[in-house]
């Protein structure tokens, strides 16, 4: 789904991704939206072991670009996509 960041409603939203076929990348995040922009993203739970650097870099790219159309973390494409899917699922709620 294409997320229109200009239509996001202020609040905190939980996004969940079941992790794909083998459920290895299951994760849940909380996204905070302040007046039409994503202000913060926090990982709440995950079956995978993500480093703080990986998460900070990935989530900061979303915040800086205000888009999910960002470059994946080199060497961690599938992990990046899984985390972004949880963010997308949270933002779908923020558009409603």
Properties at a glance:
single chain; 96 residues; alpha+beta; Sufe protein. Chain: A; 3-stranded antiparallel beta sheet; 2 helices; 3 strands; 34% helix
Oligomer classification: single chain
**Element order, helices and strands?**
EEEHH
- The level of helicity is 25-40%
β-strand percent reads 25-35%
Question: Would you kindly provide a brief summary of this structure?
Answer:
This protein is α+β, with helices and mostly antiparallel strands and 96 residues long. The protein is built from 2 helices and 3 strands; from the N terminus they run βββαα.
What can you tell me about this protein's structure?
This protein is α+β, with helices and mostly antiparallel strands and 96 residues long. It has one domain (5-95): Sufe protein. Chain: A, CATH 3.90.1010. Helix content is 34%, strand content 26%. The protein is built from 2 helices and 3 strands; from the N terminus they run βββαα. A hairpin with a 2-residue loop joins strand 2 (27-34) and strand 3 (37-46). The model has no long low-confidence stretch (mean pLDDT 94).
SSE topology sketch:
Layout: E1 11-17, E2 27-34, E3 37-46, H1 52-65, H2 77-95
Antiparallel strand pairs: 1-2, 2-3
